[in-house]
Each structure stands twice: as structure tokens, then as C-alpha cells.
Specification:
Layout: H1 2-35, H2 39-53, H3 63-66, H4 82-108, H5 113-123, H6 129-153, H7 158-167, H8 176-205, H9 218-244, H10 257-305, H11 312-319, E1 327-329, E2 335-337, E3 345-350, H12 357-372, E4 377-381, H13 392-404, E5 408-409, H14 418-426, E6 435-439, E7 445-447, H15 451-457, H16 466-474, H17 480-484, H18 491-496, E8 500-505, H19 509-526, E9 530-534, H20 541-554, E10 558-559, H21 562-581, H22 590-603, E11 608-613, E12 617-622, H23 623-631, H24 637-643, H25 645-654
Parallel strand pairs: 3-4, 4-5, 8-9, 9-10
Antiparallel strand pairs: 1-2, 3-6, 6-7, 8-11, 11-12
């Protein structure tokens, strides 16, 4: 019995607090309407009041809340002057009292609900639809609040007890079991009425500069709000009639099942209206967000096109667009103000969270070297991710990357606004492969992707501008030092000893064994020094690792570690993209042509090789040609003794006709684009262009 008593007391308290909430909501709404202040304020107040008074009856999340605008319950305490509230209530008291009397009068006599609703709408004809609903709710709250004040206080207050006696109100506890379905239905309907009222008001709060009333879905909502208002006011009439029916039934209370059914039926209808309006509101917010993002994107474009005194404004636009306190996480993972990057060269590392370990390690090495070289640049990482698929696994991966990065990062990928993501993809042409956009001390983009020159020249390319890249290429030639860079520590010694250096690749161990054996035999016959290095194959780490193991086991040649193999091929691709960005054509650019030839060899199913003697004397060939040439060395041995190995091999290869060949050049999708015309390394004819999509888990 005690449990039932406590349950009923909780139900009574909830309904009482609900009436307080309705009064508070209506009062604040009317005050703010009269004061002409921002209606969004009252939307937050509604949520706060419901949270503090009803607990379980609080509003569910709305599209407004889902936009990341968190409601802090103490934000709006005591913001409205009591004197201002009193003054506004004086002005509004008449209409609220009039509607309250209309409701009491019409509902006490059991009149027609539709007729009563139309009377109320006629009385409020000069008000907007949102005001009609709020004022009606306020008027109902007066009656509802008076009723529950009496019910709550009649056991402890003599005046309330006398009023209850005069009104012949039934004892709530005495009729707890019979009244429970009625109050449950009443509670549910009032909650639904408040939901609809709130969402109608929220439609009026939408910023007109981003969505007008004649734009779908706003126009659809505006057309349906009168219906929603009608059924909300009709529900107020039903609730008021339910409360009025309790008067005079102190001793002979006979519950009506039809009344509870009517309330439940209305609640179902009003809930359905709310759900439909909520769907339209979500669409409106989506439209508003799109407009805001378009505005933000255009603002970002304008900022980049406008000369700046320093880089701070641009950096804030990229990393803290719309944020009040722009900050980053420093190398020590503490928050730092973006001002720390003012007037520095900033390299913006744009990638997703799948940046490779090899890229990370090489970039980290170059970043650390900048301190020794006293270079004034910093790297900042804004990860570009799909928010809709973000989950705990991605969060864990992001946190791990962030923890290990020695440069500046954002606190979380969500701080990168959609407008910035759009800019990185449409202007900087980021797709999947990481890019490094260079900003000078004034925030001007000086290179759309400095990773290319970083991989080729390292920190020698500082300040990583397009002009610096151009000057570096002018000083370059196709030579073994450019191709190998510092990957082979013994290279200077081999060159000093005038040894022939052979770099080769492929993934068929049978070809590798045959080629290395035949080539060593040729070198032995000519009594020349020879060093052979296996450089692997691009994007085939596991296969290359197995082949390297076999090469070591059989002692066929030297080979490189995984990271060196990756860097070799990545540098080749970077050379090609760097050259392409400068508009060099294949026919007149030897370096670009040689790079494309090696990449084309790697794209085929066969092996390949390139021989160097000294810095620039070289010859190259695909696997079949070079193996055949070495195995048939006796046919050109005399020429080799006369001219030397490389010139003789070049002349021999020129005499071999190959009518049947298939050369493929496979390049990753990156920013910058590829030349439309690419010629075959074997025959010089233009190659056809195809698109390939690959998911390769090696």
C-alpha cells in the first residue's frame, strides 16, 4: 500500500511541476516576444525549465540540440530582470485572463470541443500562430496550476482544504487506482502539447537570412503549423474539460473510460503532428547548415584571395572557423593559442587517419632536422574525416596518431568545419593521398603540395615554394644520385671504384635468380666490378619482403629495408607529380621521361633493370629484354670489350625489335593532375588512359 501511495505522490508531483513548467514557459515566451529579443533564448529556457521541474518529462533531443549546441543548465540564471517580467505580465495579463475564463466557462459545461477551439482561435485572431498556441497554453496553465495548488496543499493548508471542499474535489489518494489511467493520459497529452508548442516556436526562431518561408521544407511547415496549432488548442480544451469534470465529485467519483480514451487518442494525434514537424525542422536545419557552409566556404575563398598582414587570420579560418577561442595542441599535447604560429611558414599536413607509417617516419625525421638547420617552419595536422562514419575505432586510431606526432594538431577532427573540408578537396584537390600545403608568413599558399619536394630534396627545398621547386629542378639532371638519394650508403664508394651499379625490380624470383646469375657471369667475363641492388616493387610490401628473404638466403644481390623500398618508389612518384605541376612535357624533359619509364616498368608483370657507370652513363630495359641480352652475351661480347658494358648493351638493345609488349603506368590519385599525353617507354607511341580503382591489402 505504501508503494502505491509513493507512486501516486510522484505522479501528483510530476503533474504539479508540469503545470509550473507550462506557466513558466508561457510567461517567458510572452515576455521575450514583447521585449523583442532573440527567440532562441526562450527555446533554451524551455529545455532548462523542463529539465529542472519534470525530470523524466524533459523534451527529447531536437535538431537544434543535435547541431552540437549543448544546453548548460546554469547559463541563463537570473538573466531577466524581475521588474521587466512584472511589467510585461501586466500588459499580457488581460488576454491570458480572458482566454483562461473562456476555457473555464466553455469546458465546465461540457460543450463541444471543436466549437470551443474555434472560439479561442477567434479571440486570438490578431496573434500569430505561435503566439496563439503559447497564450492558450498559458491560460490553461493558470487553471491547471490553480487546480494542482489546491490538490497539493489541501492536506496541510486550511485555505486550500476549504477551497477543495467548496469545489467538491475528489481525494486523489482515495481514488488513486481509478484516477491513474486518467492522469497518465492527461500527462501524456500535456507533454505532447508542449512538444508541439516548442517546435512551432522553434520554426519562428529559424534565421530568415538562411531560410525564407517560401523555401521548402519551410513552406511546407508554415502550411501545416495552423493545423498543428488547432490540434494543440483542441487538446488544451480536452485537458481543461478533464480537470473541470473532477469538480463536484468529491464523494461519488465515477470515472469515464471514454474521457481517458479521448485524451489518449488526442495524444496520439498530437505526437504524430510533432514527429512530422520534427522531420521538417530537421530538413530546415539541414538547409540552414548548407547555406551557412556555403557562406563559410565563400568567406574562406575570399580570405585566401585577399592579401593579409600575417598568417593568423588564415590559420584561424582553417583550424577554428567559427570558434571563439582558437587553439591547437602543441608538440607536448598542451593547448596553445594559434598566435604561436604567427609569421611562421606553416605546412598544413592534410590527410585522413590512414597516413602510412613510412610517410609518418620520414616526415618526422625531416621535421626534427629543421631545428638543426634553424628553419622557421611548423607543421599542423588537420585530419580530414567523414563525421557520419566516425566511431570508437577511428577515435582510438586518431588518438594514437595524435599522441605520436611531434608537430601541432587539432584537438579533434570535428573542429574542422565542412567548409574547410570542401576547400581542401575542391581547391587543394585532396583525395586520399596526403598533401602538404605551404603557407608563407602572410598566409599565402606558396605550394599546393610540398610533400613532393620534401621527398625529393628534403629541407633543402625550404621555404617550399613553387619558385624554389622550379629553381631546384633547373639545377638537376638525370643521375644516379637523384634516383638513389641517400638510400644506398655504399654508393659513393662504388662510384669511386668505377663499378657498374645495377638497380633492378620485379616480383618473380625465377626471373631474379636467372637475371642476377647471367649478369654476374657477364661481369666476370669482362673482368669489371659489379654491384647489384634489388629495389623491390611499389605497393607490394609483403611480396617484396618474401622475395628479399629469398635473395638474402641465396645471396643473389644486395637489397633494401621496407622503409627504403617505400621511399624509393614514393620519391619517383613525387618527381613525376612535381614535374607535372610545372607543366613539363615528356618529350623535352629527360628526368620526367626516365621517371615515367621506371614507373611503367614497375606497373608491368615482369622485372626490369637500370645500369649506371659513374653519375650519368646509363642504360635500362625491361625484364625479358635484359635477361635475353645477358643470356646471349656471346653475340655482343666483342662490342662490349670495344665500347664498354653500358654503351654496348645500349646498342644491342636498340637492335632488338619488340612488336608485342604491354606497358602500364599506374599512378595514385593525388592532387595536381597528370599530363594528358604519356608515351610508351618501349616504342614511343602515346599510351591510352584508363581509370583503375584498387583496394590492395598486401
Amino acid at each position: 500500500m505504501n508503494d502505491i501511495w509513493y507512486d501516486e505522490m510522484e505522479g501528483r508531483m510530476l503533474l504539479y511541476l508540469l503545470s509550473v513548467a507550462i506557466i513558466s514557459i508561457s510567461t517567458l515566451y510572452c515576455v521575450k516576444k514583447k521585449l523583442g529579443t532573440n527567440h532562441g533564448y526562450i527555446t533554451y529556457i524551455i529545455l532548462i525549465i523542463i529539465h529542472r521541474t519534470t525530470g523524466p518529462l524533459a523534451f527529447p533531443k531536437t535538431p537544434l540540440a543535435s547541431k552540437g549546441r549543448q544546453v548548460h543548465m546554469d547559463t541563463f540564471d537570473d538573466r531577466t530582470s524581475p521588474a521587466a517580467v512584472d511589467g510585461m505580465l501586466e500588459a499580457l495579463a488581460y488576454i491570458v485572463h480572458k482566454i483562461s475564463c473562456e476555457i473555464s466557462c466553455k469546458c465546465s459545461g461540457g460543450g463541444d470541443a471543436h466549437a470551443t477551439t474555434m472560439v479561442l482561435l477567434n479571440t486570438l485572431s490578431s496573434y500569430s500562430w505561435d503566439a496563439k498556441v503559447v497564450l492558450t497554453l498559458a491560460a490553461f496553465a493558470v487553471n491547471f496550476g490553480e487546480f494542482w495548488l489546491v490538490v497539493q496543499l489541501c492536506t496541510t493548508n486550511s485555505l486550500a482544504k476549504s477551497v477543495a471542499l467548496l469545489k467538491q474535489l475528489p481525494d486523489i489518494l482515495e481514488h488513486s487506482q481509478t484516477l491513474k489511467p486518467h492522469f497518465d493520459a492527461l500527462n501524456k497529452l500535456i507533454k505532447a502539447m508542449m512538444d508541439v508548442t516548442k517546435i512551432i516556436v522553434e520554426f519562428t526562431e529559424l534565421p530568415s537570412q538562411y531560410i525564407s518561408s517560401d523555401v521548402r521544407p519551410m513552406s511546407i511547415a508554415m502550411a501545416q503549423i495552423p493545423t498543428a496549432a488547432y490540434w494543440t488548442i483542441r487538446s488544451v480544451v480536452a485537458c481543461a474539460a478533464q480537470i473541470a469534470s473532477l469538480v463536484g465529485l468529491r464523494h461519488e467519483f465515477i470515472p469515464s473510460t471514454s474521457e481517458a480514451w479521448e485524451l489518449s487518442s488526442l495524444a496520439h494525434k498530437v505526437i504524430s503532428i510533432h514527429e512530422h514537424l520534427q522531420t521538417l525542422l530537421r530538413l530546415c536545419y539541414r538547409h540552414i547548415d548548407e547555406k551557412k557552409q556555403t557562406e563559410a566556404y565563400e568567406g574562406l575563398v575570399h580570405s585566401f584571395q585577399t592579401p593579409q598582414l600575417d598568417n593568423l587570420k588564415i590559420l584561424i579560418k582553417i583550424f577554428s572557423l567559427g570558434k571563439e577561442y582558437p587553439h591547437l595542441l602543441g608538440p607536448d599535447k598542451n593547448k596553445v593559442h594559434m598566435d604561436i604560429l604567427r609569421r611562421k611558414h606553416v605546412l598544413v599536413l592534410i590527410s585522413d587517419i590512414d597516413i602510412s607509417q613510412e610517410e609518418f617516419q620520414v616526415l618526422e625525421l625531416l621535421y626534427d632536422e629543421r631545428v638543426i638547420s634553424e628553419l622557421n617552419y611548423e607543421i599542423v595536422w588537420p585530419p580530414i574525416v567523414d563525421r557520419s562514419t566516425w566511431n570508437d575505432s577511428y577515435q582510438k586510431k586518431f588518438s594514437s596518431l595524435q599522441l605520436n606526432m611531434p608537430w601541432y594538431t587539432v584537438n579533434h577532427p570535428s573542429v574542422i568545419e565542412p567548409a574547410v573540408i570542401k576547400y581542401t578537396k575542391e581547391v587543394w584537390r585532396f583525395v586520399k593521398k596526403p598533401i602538404l600545403v605551404t603557407l608563407d608568413q602572410q598566409g599565402k599558399v606558396t605550394c599546393p603540395n610540398a610533400l613532393n619536394m620534401l621527398w625529393v630534396w628534403g629541407n633543402l627545398a625550404f621555404p617550399f615554394s613553387t619558385e624554389k621547386e622550379e629553381s631546384l629542378w633547373k639545377a638537376e639532371s638525370w643521375r644516379i644520385e637523384l634516383l638513389v638519394d641517400g638510400l644506398e650508403p655504399d654508393l659513393p664508394t662504388w662510384m669511386k671504384e668505377q663499378k657498374v651499379i645495377c638497380l633492378y625490380g620485379g616480383e618473380k624470383i625465377e626471373w631474379i635468380a636467372s637475371f642476377t646469375s647471367a649478369t654476374k657471369m657477364v661481369a666476370q667475363t669482362l673482368a669489371i666490378g659489379l654491384e647489384m641492388v634489388y629495389v623491390g616493387k611499389n605497393n607490394a610490401k609483403e611480396r617484396v619482403r618474401k622475395i628479399t628473404g629469398l635473395i638474402n638466403e641465396r645471396k643473389l644481390s644486395y637489397n633494401w629495408q621496407d622503409a627504403d623500398v617505400w621511399f624509393f618508389w614514393n620519391r619517383l612518384e613525387s618527381m613525376l607529380f612535381s614535374k607535372t605541376q610545372h607543366g613539363k612535357t615528356n618529350e623535352i624533359d629527360v628526368i620526367k621521361q626516365e621517371v615515367m619509364t621506371l614507373l611503367g616498368y614497375d606497373g608491368s608483370e615482369h622485372g626490369w633493370t637500370v645500369f649506371f657507370l659513374g653519375s650519368t652513363e646509363m642504360v635500362r630495359a625491361n625484364g625479358d629484354k635484359i635477361l635475353s641480352s645477358m643470356q646471349n652475351f656471346r653475340h655482343w661480347e666483342d662490342l662490349a670489350r670495344e665500347l664498354g658494358l653500358i654503351p654496348a648493351l645500349r646498342k644491342h638493345l636498340e637492335g632488338i625489335t619488340d612488336d608485342h609488349h604491354c606497358t602500364r603506368l599506374i599512378l595514385p590519385g593525388v592532387s595536381g593532375g597528370i599530363a594528358e599525353k604519356v608515351v610508351c617507354a618501349e616504342c614511343g607511341r602515346p599510351m591510352e588512359m584508363y581509370f583503375m580503382y584498387r583496394c590492395c591489402v598486401d
